[in-house]
Structures are given as structure tokens and as C-alpha cells.
Amino acid sequence: MSTQPATPGLRRDIAGHSVVELAEKFGTPTYVYDTTPIDARIQDLQHFDLIRFAQKACSNLAILDHVRRQGVVVDAVSAGEIRRAMAAGYDLQENPPAVVYCADLFDQDSLELVIKHDIHVNCGSPDMIDQLGQVAPGRNITLRINPGFGHGHSQKTNTGGPQSKHGIWHEEVEDCLLRADRHGLGVTGIHMHIGSGSDFEHLAQVCGALEETARRVGRSITSVSAGGGLPIPYRDGEAQIDTVRYFELWDQSRQRLAKEFGHPISLEIEPGRYLSAEAGFLIAEIRSIKKMGENLFYLVDAGFNNLARPILYGAYHPMSISPRHGGVPDTTAEVVVGGPLCESGDIFTQEEGGYVCSRRLPVAKVGDYLVIECAGAYGQVMSSNYNSKPFAAEVMIRDHQAQLIRKRQTFADLIQGEVIPES
Fold first, then answer.
1. Which terminus of the chain is more exposed, N or C, with fewer CB under 10 A?
2. What is the DSSP pairing of strand 295-300 with strand 280-292?
């Protein structure tokens, strides 16, 4: 466990490993994952019959292998994620399904994999029912339903309502059942997810909408999915969600359906951010400190090519300073934290809409390290090579050992596949 000093915004270690030593050994920028929070979040959700990790949040093979060993299954939203699950050791023939394909469309690659490996499909669009049924009639499917309303900390993370592309519109359920019948597809599951950061008021609405939809489908339903979107505390003073109360709301819905249908109903949950966000840290080196008018900038060697959440929707991440040469800074300053990219939006301290803001951090020097915390979800997985920047290294700390789980991308890796045509 980390033992941090009392000085606000100062961090010496991650899971007992010196930040400075991690940076010197693996370079910067580097993602570091402490598996202890992942294990704790898995335990939080043990009341559910099945925990299905939304691997899009953090899909490194070592992370997938780690959760697999604890009985956590996964969903896949692409052919690549199906292949990742296979590479991480998931058995595609397990029951209940170890891997479910959950998307709003099939591309050719994903459809071929689903057919070849008999992967269960969570259909998010009516066309998917026809496309699957035409080539693989007689299978069972789940329907992802858009109940007509949504919720999220940003409009860009709201996955319900008429402005969302996700799911089957609730008024089209009967049409989808007819499509399934035409192909002999059995509808055995209902999935409903309205966005990240759901509160209990919205959750109760979702539970009610899911029950109503399940009744319209009928007794063929054997499983319901609570979806994901469980929040984690990014800011001081924010509390962890009450997962017992969360489960109880869903369980009540499940029990009512089981009583009406006359058989047990399995209850799944699909966390992504909730499992991995608190486990992740992005270590960057401060390479320049400068004044721009009234603003003091700390410029680091990580940018939105490494962590895009702030520029995408103004996401807040805790930050801390690790002095390279020890000592405890006795003063703090309001600073703007930015990256190296040739882009004005390359600012980690911004609010939604691109509004630059500052953060109070210890006074630092060039060469000190800045740690961006709660970065284990939608961090490395959303990385890009913008400005021809290589992907960061990734390190996992488990059983007190820090091990490299992704090599830093080289320039040769970066241009692999590019071809200059012969003149």
C-alpha cells in the first residue's frame, strides 16, 4: 500500500514503488497499474452472478489475464477485442459465455469471428439481428435496449435517449422480436445501459424500463444485464458508490421477473471504469516551467496522445508531484498543466468546452515528475500517434513486483506498414 506524505499534491510512491525509480527504470511517459484497487472493486461486485469487464476501458493482455483469473468475464466491442480476449486465455466455449460481442453494428471481420467461434451477441441495432440470422440461424441473442432516456457526466458519455446511437429504440422491440423469429433466433437476454455516472434515481428508472422490456419479450429471458457506468471518486470529498444498494435495486427487478417467468434469472453487471480507473497512474516528466501572463505552466512529456479524457470532455484527474531529488516542497502554486503537442487543446487542467483552468500543486522544478492519477480507464486504450508520438510503456504492480506489460513503441513500430510508392 502507498504511504503518501501529508503535503497535499505530493506523491512518493505507487504501491510501495518509488515514482522516481519507476520513471528512471521504465522511462516517461509510462502508465503504471496497481492491481490492488482492481481486486477491491471486483470484491465490491461479488453479489452479482457474473461480472463482465468492459475491456474497452483497459485492454492490456496482462490486465485481462489478471481479471480472468478472478472469474471475471469480458465483453468485446470489436473483432480486435475478441482476439484480445482469446490471447488473454478466455475460453470461448464456456457457459455462461466468457466473451460476449456487444456493439451497434457488425463489420465483416467481427461477424466472421462471431460465426466461427459461436460467440454470443448483444445486438444494439435491428440490422444486427438480420445480419446474424441470415448466416447463423437458430442461435440465442441478447438485445441492448435504449429506453428513451440517458444519463452521464458528459453528453459524450450519455448512452441513452434519442441523441445516442446506442441500443435498440424501446419502441422497436416488437419489430426486433419478429426479426428474431424469422431467423429462429432466441432472445434470452436483455441489456440496458444509459451512460456513465448513473445515480440511484436514474438507476431506478432503468430497472423499471428493463423489467417492462423483459415482460414484452417473455419467458425466454434467462439473463439481464445491469450494464456499466458505475462512478468512481475523482475529486476529494466524493464517495464510493454504495454497491450493496446498487445490487439490491437490480436484484429486486431480477427477482420479480424470475417469479413471473417461473425460472431463475441470471444478473450480470458490466463495469469498465469502475474496475480499472483507480488502478492507473500516468507518470510524466516536467520538461518546462514558464509564465504566460498570469498563468504558470507545468509542461510535461505526456499529452492528449497519451490521455485524451480531459480534451474530449473536460474530465478531471487528480494530480501530484514527485520531486526527482527528494525533499518536501514547502509552497504550492496555481498551475496549468499541459503537454508537448502542437495543439492548444493539449491541456490536462481543462473543463468541458475547452476552458483552461489551474490546479494547486507543490512548487516543482524541471526534471521533477507529475503523476496523473485515476488514469486506468480510457487512458492508454484511447492513445494516438498524433505528432508522431510513440505509445507509452505500461507497467503492472502485482504481488509487490513491478513488471513491464507493454514495451514503449519505437519509431520503427510507428512507421511499420507505411509505404512510399515507387515513382
1. C
2. antiparallel
Question: What pTM was estimated for this model as a whole?
Answer: 0.94
Q: Quote the CA–CA distance of 101 and 267 in Å, as a whole number.
A: 18
Of 123, 207, 342, 357, which is the active-site residue? 342
Q: How far apart (Å, rounded) are the C-alpha atoms in residues 222 and 294?
A: 61
Helix (H) or strand (E) holding 258: helix 243-261
The 10 Å Cβ neighbour count of residue 47 is 15
Q: If we measure between CA atoms, which residue out of 334, 230, 323 comes closest to residue 276?
A: 230
Amino acid identity of residue 325, one-letter, is H
Looking up cell 500517434 gives 385
Cα distance from N-terminal residue to C-terminal residue, the chain: 60
Q: pLDDT tens digit string along 187-224? A: 999 998 766 555 677 777 888 999 999 999 999 999 99
The Cα 227–Cα 155 span in angstroms is: 18
Q: How far apart are CA 12 and CA 130, in angstroms?
A: 56
62: enclosing H helix or E strand = helix 61-68
Angle between helix 243-261 and helix 200-217 axes, rounded to 10 deg: 20
pLDDT in tens, 364-400: 999 999 999 999 999 999 999 999 999 999 999 999 9
Tell me what pLDDT residue 112 has.
98
Nearest-angstrom CA–CA distance, 363 and 329? 6
Give the span between the Cα atoms of 247 and 360, in whole angstroms.
37
Strands (E), 72-222: 73-76, 99-103, 120-123, 140-146, 168-169, 186-191
Number of residues that make up the chain: 423
Q: pLDDT digit string (tens) for 256-284?
A: 999 999 999 999 999 999 999 999 999 99
CB 213 within 8 A of CB 205: no
Q: Grid coordinates representing 319?
A: 494530480
**For residue 199, what pLDDT is reported?**
64
Chain Cα centroid distance, residue 415: 28
Per-residue pLDDT of 86-101, as tens digits, reads 999 999 999 999 999 9
The 8-class DSSP code of residue 399 comes to T
**Does the annotation count 123 as an active-site position?**
no
275 CB-near residues (< 8 Å, 6+ apart) = 38, 41, 42, 53, 57, 58, 67, 72, 377
281-323 tens-digit pLDDT: 999 999 999 999 999 999 999 999 999 999 999 999 999 999 9
Amino acid at 16: G
Distance CA 391, CA 302 (A): 10
